[in-house]
Write a structure and sequence with these properties.
This protein has a three-stranded mixed sheet with strand order 2-1-7. A two-stranded antiparallel sheet has the order 3-4. The termini are far apart. A hairpin with a 2-residue loop joins β5 and β6. The C terminus is likely disordered. It is mostly beta strands.
Length: 88
């Protein structure tokens, strides 16, 4: 369960989903799929972007220095699916 901002330098407590960015990362497929959720508070989401590597690692990148990955599905600033390791 997500309970604080993913930016370790911030650590703001998640009380409501009114601001910021929530992403859902799905690893695998079918019954073996696992799901992780990450949240950046409103302030951090203005400065940082989630960066997803092919091995499933999630890190932060600066919005001003790094363009949004082309293979990330966004709708209203929420990642709907990220099928890491599915071969797609």
């Amino acid at each position: 369960m997500v309970n604080h901002c993913y930016n370790s330098a911030c650590g703001k407590e998640l009380l409501y989903l009114r601001e910021g960015r929530v992403v859902r990362v799905v690893h695998g497929e079918g019954e073996e799929a696992t799901v992780e959720h990450f949240w950046l508070c409103g302030s951090c989401s203005e400065r940082y972007e989630f960066v997803f590597s092919s091995d499933g690692a999630v890190t932060l990148g600066s919005r001003s220095e790094w363009p949004r990955p082309a293979n990330v599905l966004f709708k209203d600033d929420v990642v709907l699916e990220w099928p890491i390791g599915s071969g797609e």
